[in-house]
Structures are given as C-alpha cells and as structure tokens.
Design a protein that fits this description.
heterodimer, A: mainly beta, seven-stranded mixed β-sheet, four-stranded antiparallel β-sheet, 11 strands, globular, B: about 0% helix
Chain lengths: ~120, ~110
C-alpha cells in the first residue's frame, strides 16, 4: 500500500529551525518529483516547494525562499524540509505530496496526513 | 507568480443541487489546472487533473472544464459527503505553483 507519513512538527520559537521528514513506502520514490504544501490555521492551501526525482532541481515559494530548503534521500525513501529563520506566519500544517508528471499535467495524487508546526514564543 | 482567483469563496446548497465553482488564472496556463477536495482535519484529495480528467476512484458527478485562463468544477448532483472545501491549483511553467483561495460548500 502506498503511504506518505510526515514527522518533525512541534512548537518552535521565532527565529528557530526545524526539519520535517516525510517517510514513503509502497512506490518507487526515486521515480517521482515530490512537493511540500502547507495550510495555516483556518486558511487555504499554500504551495511551499518541489524537488525533482534525483534532487537536482528544487523550487521554493517566494514566501520561504532563502529560509526553507527541500531535499530528499532516495536510498531512504524520504523527503525533507529544512526550515530556518522561522516566523509566526510559518505556523501551519505541512503536507508532503507525490507529484505525477505528464505532457499536459502535473498534479499531486498522494498526500500525507500532515504535521503541525507552531511558531510562537 | 501566476495568481489564481477562485469564486465563490463559499456557497450554500442542498443535496441534489448542481454546483459550479470557477477559477481564473492571471495568465494562460493551458490545461495545467487541478481541483482538490478537502474535508476538515484531512489532507486534500485530488478530484480532477489536467483541467478535465477525473482521478481514479472519484465519482463521475464531479467534472472539470476549461483551458487558458477560465476553469470550472461542477458537481452534477450534490451528495452529503461532498460538503467540503474545494481548491484549484495551477501547475504551469516554472515549477512554482499556486492554489486558489478555496470554496467552502455548506449545507443549506
């Protein structure tokens, strides 16, 4: 069975750091681009970052550029999000998602349950 | 970044109603448009990809249409399990994506 499971969330002080992990199983992890999406309490979805199958290309939203870094370990079938310089407005549930790519579509067909990051003093 | 304007932000409807949600892109995105459903406390669930392709396992009462800048999600006959929030997402071009603001579908 295919599965994504996020971990690493919790309470962190403003200016602090946190690394989120996403463990995957049931599919060939190295064959897929992967994504992080977040959702602040009571608000909508916000795309955070994408990473290519082999990790050679990474794209981040302007709101996290320079502070967050997406990475992956294909040997461990894991995706990561290193978050530095955290701000109160980064408080959100963070989801990892699998990306399906084709000629006329890129979409997220599989999602984890999410992990909550709370940035507060 | 490509802005996505989704409307309405919320709507009230009854079981059996036909419901339409629209999404407008700030520039042409071809058919790089997806729709997701999200229920409270749950992860998003893919409904439609490539503007009009139905994801496997999604009921046929859901359909999508459009291309370029204007897109529509239609639920032909609203069911009790369809009361949720819906989001469009553009995945065109430079690998920087955006979601619409969301539409909350509530029971009338």
């Amino acid at each position: 069975e295919v599965h994504l499971g996020e971990s690493g969330g919790g309470l962190v002080q403003p200016g602090g750091s946190r690394r989120l992990s996403c463990a995957t199983s049931g599919f060939t992890f190295s064959s897929y681009w992967m994504s992080w999406v977040r959702q602040a309490p009571g608000t909508g979805l916000e795309w955070v970052a994408n990473i290519k199958k082999d990790g050679s290309e990474k794209y981040h939203a302007d709101s996290v550029q320079g502070r967050f870094t997406i990475s992956r370990d294909n040997a461990k079938n894991e995706l990561y999000l290193q978050m530095d310089g955290l701000r109160v407005e980064d408080t959100a549930v963070y989801y990892c998602a699998r990306i399906v790519t084709a000629v006329t579509t890129w979409h997220c067909d599989l999602w984890g349950r999410g992990t909550l990051v709370t940035v507060s003093s | 970044d490509i802005q996505m304007t989704q409307s309405p932000s919320s709507l009230s409807a009854s079981v059996g109603d036909r419901v339409t949600i629209t999404c407008r892109a700030g520039q042409s995105i071809g058919i790089y448009l997806n729709w997701y459903q999200q229920k409270p406390g749950k992860a998003p669930n893919l409904l439609i990809y490539g503007a009009s392709s139905l994801q496997s396992g999604v009921p046929s009462r859901f359909s999508g249409s459009g291309s370029g800048t204007d897109f529509t999600l239609t639920i032909s006959s609203l069911q009790p399990e369809d009361f949720a929030s819906y989001y469009c997402q553009q995945t065109f071009g430079s690998r920087t994506w955006t979601f619409g603001q969301g539409t909350k579908v509530e029971i009338k």
